[in-house]
């Protein structure tokens, strides 16, 4: 499949490498796609050997190397084909691998030596990736083609085969990011435990890495052994993310007197709240029963009562006012009942607060109306699947979606600060499905929490949640790492259009109305229709979409078992999928990006008797620019800060330091290696990034 797609670009010379330019028009990576799997033809030899390294339970039977006495390194037919295609370079790259995860082929060096001794041309060199790419850059770098845009890869479908673990890893990633920032905010310049942070990141990466299971996931011994190790990466990542967050928050906490102290611990009901973003942030703080045992009332540092509500779960939720950028606020749980503060109410299956009205259909449980108060415009298109947040089970390779059957709709929270309805359903392929819709007073968005309790079916199937928005002639913009991609417009012709992935948010909007949609737990989505329903095995078979017609419908593709190798064949048990819907007027990239980040990285709290009264480490003077990374190094009084611009034009930026002043600010052009010193304001390229090393005096 990849070979076919990349061959399409041969007339441009892409097969010999190209510069992939970033959104700032300046940063770039050298990309080379040599061709298909083992394009040297080496897998023929691998098959002839019977793969003796593969499927051996007795390690003594696994050969350290493969040596048969021959290796076919005659590639003249490939060179002739390249010449016929007017290939412009004097090299070609051929990968040699006997199969996946194989031992070294010990015959190759001797075969290459024999070829080079016998023939003057072409010469064969055994090289590593660094040597190959360095040669291409040095010899052809100025003449290589330049491409922009999003590749939109194909191998992301596996993220839906173990949805609970994928969600776990997405949240661990956000937790470690916030822990990095919190350490810098609270550690008073002390060096970070870099090894602990790096290990957390390592396990996050090991979890997300492509291969999850045995080549034949139906074979019990190897599948169970490999899957056990793979699952451990996700759990280790979660445990380590919680650990580094606890360590980062520790300076704000109090000494415990154990059994000699009060039953609620030393905090005396105090709650320190932290904002890890470079702009002001307010929002909800949810306390466990243990954190809020003193009472149901919450006061701020001035003794003023703030809105709170004891939830049906036993948790206490309160609304924090705007917490300063990279700063803190302090609240206290006190005796008494929650005040009747808030504008939320439920009437039948309609939820309201001061900003929004949400109507749910009694028969389907879908959202059929979403309106901003004072406006009759409905952001939902009920003609699409009967409304938004619709459930569908889909058998593989058949366009036969089956909706759930509603069993009950119940009030979970009745206000006045929080209202929530839960729709309980039966659905094919599942033990049960529940969909909860919540509004919070003071917040202009809808919170959705869907729980799918999946049955461990071997039948190829998928679970999709649909969101049809009433936004005619819309543009869909997708948050991806370091960029915002417009569907279809920014996608390469070779890219995948049957399913896509987002980082935190996407936005569907026209010139007057739009919705920013966040998917906190499930990264896969489909655009316009349920196009990911392909399970046809090897060879790239399937109805692959070549273009995506404009649409205002999004499907969250949360579960599947479509691919037949390297991924689990089933998944079982309840998994939660959370969404946020923010209806707005015209699109504002800063507003949407902040919304997405605040949902993924919300206010962080810890029980603390004393107010930390943090002074922000730094301040960014341009709202188009924000810090994506703020972390302490392994040395005292050092920070790494990465800034990102959301602007389509060059932006001036100044950093100020409300607390201690830095002794030096350096620009890091390569990795986190400090280069030239920056004094005063500096400029950022459109959609650009800047990495800084900030050093403070001891």
UniProtKB/TrEMBL annotation:
Keyword ATP-binding: no
Positions of the Glycosyl hydrolase family 38 C-terminal domain: 351-516
Region (Disordered): 253-273
Keyword annotations from UniProtKB, A to Z: Hydrolase
GO molecular function list: hydrolase activity
Gene3D superfamilies in UniProt: Golgi alpha-mannosidase II, domain 4
Domain of life: Bacteria
Annotated PANTHER family: ALPHA-MANNOSIDASE 2C1 (PTHR46017)
The protein's name in its UniProt record: Glycosyl hydrolase
Organism in which the protein naturally occurs: Parabacteroides faecalis
